[in-house]
Amino acid sequence: MNPRSTTPNATARPDQGVQEAVVRRAISGVACAAAAVVSVLVSSVACGGGTPSADAPDAPPIARIHRAQCGKCHVRVEPGERTREQLEAAFPRHHRRVRLTDDEWAQMVEYLASTKR
Fold this sequence. Notes:
Helix content is 54%, strand content 0%. The chain is an all-alpha fold. The chain has 2 domains: 1-46; 61-113, no CATH class. Helix 3 runs antiparallel to helix 4 (102-113).
């Protein structure tokens, strides 16, 4: 009988149980990594139908302004990362640095407050 097993096994090596455990753990780790990759791919495909990128032909004009202007002084905020209230609180100090019309500022709030990406 194998000392690590409760069933008789005449051909078992003493270290076989350890090797099997290592292999099971490695397979489990690979399975977890594969599941994570699949999850990311599925969520990116599922969420891809929202706000088009600034380079897309159907992107609103404000998206191109966002890409060109935002991020020169700080990390660019992408659509859906901030609430409308956070954007409206932050934008007055941006008016001194970026010259947009009132209509463009309103469009920027709408574009960035969008939860669709």
